[in-house]
């Protein structure tokens, strides 16, 4: 019988990474000097998650999907994605600004032979005072205006900059130019894709190679949505002891669960796996068959589609992101 699954953390050393993965999330990323990202649930080639505990310990996520199919991911999801697990879950610590970048949509990614596109969302877990990020442009641009701004190094002048605080959510459809600013710790939910077009990297030089990182200026041009939008921060109601929907997209639905009392969640109406991402506090997940799983800030659990209900028992106040494929 399938049960709520946790996976071994995959640590990523990044030029802009810091120490919050260790100091705030309690994850030991030795021997890396710092850590920019942890990949918690991943089916990206070369970075496939491995089950941490239980009778399936040591099995890869890809093996599980191939073996259990719809029982693990949901019949609808399996028909849509086959043996590829469709979501990638990360925690990101930006000790410095990340590069200005953009991701292609599914159609462009297919044309270029890079698999799926990359729509994503961020949930801000911790923010240093005054921390900011970029989502989109501050005005409508033409393609020619964008190309000129990159060429004359004024791209930062046309970016929409937002102050970010804990609990803020930003939904970033494929094509939206963005960067995570210095001082932010966040959870990221995204399509299973590692395709990024780096537009500008603040003229950084890699300490090891002495070289600037590669830019993908030409590849980015056809991927970008040049339209300006009125709102870039995702509005949602912050309620206690209620499940609140924050994001609904073609690729994932994400609800925010802010609870301080026990709650039972019935997933019989969802033909999908569910991933629970603890972004504050702690809880215990109780599932049928006497299975019990503690989860603390910075940990995730994959609830297989065949597990139709779970009970969440908070350890005081807890905030969990609940995400699944619609």
UniProtKB/TrEMBL annotation:
<dbReference type="InterPro" id="IPR051804">
    <property type="entry name" value="Carb_Metab_Reg_Kinase/Isom"/>
</dbReference>
<dbReference type="InterPro" id="IPR014628">
    <property type="entry name" value="Man6P_isomerase_Firm_short"/>
</dbReference>
<feature type="active site">
    <location>
        <position position="198"/>
    </location>
</feature>
<keyword id="KW-0862">Zinc</keyword>
<feature type="binding site">
    <location>
        <position position="103"/>
    </location>
    <ligand>
        <name>Zn(2+)</name>
    </ligand>
</feature>
<dbReference type="GO" id="GO:0005975">
    <property type="term" value="P:carbohydrate metabolic process"/>
</dbReference>
<feature type="domain" description="Phosphomannose isomerase type I catalytic">
    <location>
        <begin position="8"/>
        <end position="111"/>
    </location>
</feature>
<dbReference type="GO" id="GO:0008270">
    <property type="term" value="F:zinc ion binding"/>
</dbReference>
<protein>
    <submittedName>
        <fullName>Mannose-6-phosphate isomerase</fullName>
    </submittedName>
</protein>
<keyword id="KW-0479">Metal-binding</keyword>
<dbReference type="InterPro" id="IPR046457">
    <property type="entry name" value="PMI_typeI_cat"/>
</dbReference>
<feature type="binding site">
    <location>
        <position position="178"/>
    </location>
    <ligand>
        <name>Zn(2+)</name>
    </ligand>
</feature>
<keyword id="KW-0413">Isomerase</keyword>
<dbReference type="InterPro" id="IPR014710">
    <property type="entry name" value="RmlC-like_jellyroll"/>
</dbReference>
<dbReference type="GO" id="GO:0004476">
    <property type="term" value="F:mannose-6-phosphate isomerase activity"/>
</dbReference>
<dbReference type="Pfam" id="PF20511">
    <property type="entry name" value="PMI_typeI_cat"/>
</dbReference>
<dbReference type="InterPro" id="IPR011051">
    <property type="entry name" value="RmlC_Cupin_sf"/>
</dbReference>
<feature type="binding site">
    <location>
        <position position="120"/>
    </location>
    <ligand>
        <name>Zn(2+)</name>
    </ligand>
</feature>
């Amino acid at each position: 019988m399938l049960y709520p699954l946790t996976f071994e953390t995959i640590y990523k050393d990044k030029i802009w990474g810091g120490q919050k993965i260790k100091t705030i999330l309690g994850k030991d990323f030795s021997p890396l000097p710092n850590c920019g990202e942890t990949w918690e649930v991943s089916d990206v080639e070369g970075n496939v998650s491995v089950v941490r505990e239980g009778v399936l310990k040591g099995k890869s996520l890809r093996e599980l999907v191939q073996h259990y199919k719809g029982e693990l991911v949901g019949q609808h999801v399996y028909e849509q994605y086959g043996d590829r697990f469709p979501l990638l879950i990360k925690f990101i610590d930006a000790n410095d600004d990340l590069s200005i970048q953009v991701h292609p949509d599914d159609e462009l990614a297919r044309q270029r032979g890079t698999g799926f596109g990359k729509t994503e969302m961020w949930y801000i877990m911790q923010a240093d005072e005054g921390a900011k990020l970029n989502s989109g442009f501050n005005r409508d641009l033409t393609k020619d205006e964008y190309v000129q701004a990159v060429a004359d190094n004024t791209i930062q002048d046309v970016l929409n900059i937002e102050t970010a605080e804990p609990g803020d959510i930003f939904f970033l459809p494929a094509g939206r130019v963005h960067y995570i600013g210095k001082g932010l710790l966040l959870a990221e939910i995204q399509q299973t894709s590692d395709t990024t077009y780096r537009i500008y990297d603040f003229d950084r030089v890699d300490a090891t190679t002495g070289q600037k990182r590669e830019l993908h200026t030409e590849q980015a041009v056809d991927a970008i949505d040049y339209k300006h939008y009125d709102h870039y921060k995702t509005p949602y109601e912050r309620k206690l002891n209620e499940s609140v929907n924050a994001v609904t997209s073609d690729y994932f639905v994400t609800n925010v669960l802010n609870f301080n009392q026990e709650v039972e969640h019935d997933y019989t109406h969802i033909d999908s796996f569910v991933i629970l991402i603890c972004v504050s506090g702690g809880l215990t997940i109780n599932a049928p068959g006497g299975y019990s799983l503690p989860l603390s800030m910075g940990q995730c659990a994959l609830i297989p589609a065949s597990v139709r209900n779970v009970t969440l028992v908070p350890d005081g106040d807890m905030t969990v992101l609940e995400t699944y494929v619609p």
